[in-house]
Amino acid sequence: MDRSGYVAVVGGINMDIQGRSTGAFRPGDSNPGSAFMSPGGVGRNVAENLVRLGIRTELVAVLGDDSLSAALAESCGRLGIGLRGAMRLSQTAASQYLCLLDDSGALVGAVAAMDSIERLTPERLAERSGLLDGAAMVVADANLPAATLAWLAERYGGEGEGSRPGRRGPLLVLDPVSVAKAAKAVDLVGSFAFAKPNRAEAEVLSGLAIASRDDLPAAAAALRAKGLGQAFVSMGREGLYYEGVGASGLLERGFVRPPALPVANVSGAGDAALAALVWGQLSDYTIKERAALASAAAALAASAPTTVSPDMGAARLLELAKGVVHE
Known about the structure:
By secondary structure, this protein is of the alpha/beta class. The protein has a single domain (6-25, 32-326), classed as Ribokinase (UDP-N-acetylmuramoyl-L-alanine:D-glutamate ligase), CATH 3.40.1190.20. The protein has helices at residues 42-52, 67-79, 122-126, 129-133, 146-156, 179-182, 199-206, 216-225, 269-282, 287-302, 314-321; strands spanning 6-10, 14-21, 33-40, 56-60, 62-63, 87-88, 96-101, 107-113, 137-141, 171-175, 194-195, 230-234, 240-245, 251-257, 325-326. A nine-stranded mixed beta sheet has the order 4-1-9-10-11-12-13-14-15, sandwiched between helices. The chain has a four-stranded mixed beta sheet with strand order 3-2-7-8. The chain is globular.
């Protein structure tokens, strides 16, 4: 594919407020630790990773008119994330995501205050259809309202194994976000060229239980039977399973283990992995190579205290991918 185009990411932007305990986390108690605030949101995080990988990116999201919204917009401008399609709402506060991590960087709990994204309706996307139509790829973040996901699936879907001949327009990609959000895409998953669910999200989308790695082929096959072009299922620190038809027309599947890096914060790992898959698709890497890039990207993101690693970049990612173990 042509990397000279741009990617449109449709989804969430918010201010992350993160707290991390210095010792073992004690539920129901005040835990000594550290806290900081930084720009976040699944859509925004994917967009930042893409920009750091050298891809022109437009973020279609909702911003308010408070000081946090101004800070988010300023951050996007500084990074080079386009906001031509962003909605600017008056008398509206920025979305916020509050998360708690234990001393190992694992997520203990979180609260997402993101009601404003419900204003990103199909009608609002239709007003931005020119921007979306011109993209090489459209990334849909399942934080979006169900009707908006359905609108995107109807307009841009159908690039999977059963895609209609002569189809034009951007590839459509899904980030399921969470178990609750993935439920919105159960009947739409066949409209996407590829998706990167984690184990729990893949269970929701496929309708099958995944108790261990042995269950991954059946779940991925169920997703592809629905029409999903390629499935990349994350098993967290254990690794990533991939399955789909490659450029050769043959089915490819396998499992990759990430390179060994210290873990500081896992909350942005999935966003980085999806961005690496998008970058790899635009760069014409094979499914196997893209799985390795995604695994390396997740490990790199998890090694940074922020949700997006400042070290993310094409050269660094390619170097890390050499340390991925293929099984």
